[in-house]
Design goal:
By secondary structure, the chain is α/β, with parallel strands linked by helices. The protein contains nine helices and seven strands; from the N terminus they run H-H-H-E-H-E-H-E-H-E-H-E-H-H-E-E. Bound molecules: S-adenosylmethionine.
Amino acid sequence: MNRLYRPQKYIYDLTRKHFLPGREVLLRAMAVPARGRVLEAGCGTARNLILLARKYPDSTFFGFDASTEMLAVARRKITRRGLHERIRIGPALAEEFDRQVIFGVEAPFDAAYFSYSLSMMPRWRQALDQVLAQIRCGGWLYIADFCDMEGWPGCLRRSIQKLLRTYHTVYRPESLEYLRTLAENGKGVLTVKTLMRGYAHVAEFKTQS
Ligand SMILES: C[S@@+](CC[C@H](N)C(=O)[O-])C[C@H]1O[C@@H](n2cnc3c(N)ncnc32)[C@H](O)[C@@H]1O
């Protein structure tokens, strides 16, 4: 991940503004309880964490990422905005993330989310299981990511998907199928919203109380 993000870490926020539309929908949809604790898996430059920390001033936010290059940018932004006491970040792989090892916290999180990061994880199932294991009963998991682009003209769809592959990003419908199966087995309730004719999706999985 460092090799991919080293050259673009400074322009990342500017260049992704219109490219990742599910982020705003995700942040609006998120239920953050009073004095809540929320985790972002693959937090990148902490753009989402900073917006959430400003919106929910009594809550605490945690983020981890595989790229120390992205985390270095994130750390500078968080410090510059005076949010270092309410946003904690650290290096980790989603497939192996453990809140006690990385942040030394005992209590599980109220909510966790993947924002355009799950599609970069070939071991998506381990990543989902590992992050789900960090959420309290009755908490929330959210995912914003690319979708099948079904409503897009074939040539445009293929060009965008080819571009995404250069960023190691692949739409994996099986990750939503997996959550659907968990929901059918009584492990939670799944809601999926598709945006911009299938360009992106936002999923909410409320875990069983
Ligand atoms: C497209 S960026 C999204 C960043 C941020 N979530 C956002 O919405 O702006 C994807 C991020 O996921 C991270 N990532 C990819 N695979 C990962 C993994 N297995 N574990 C943790 N982070 C990972 C990348 O390093 C990158 O920072």
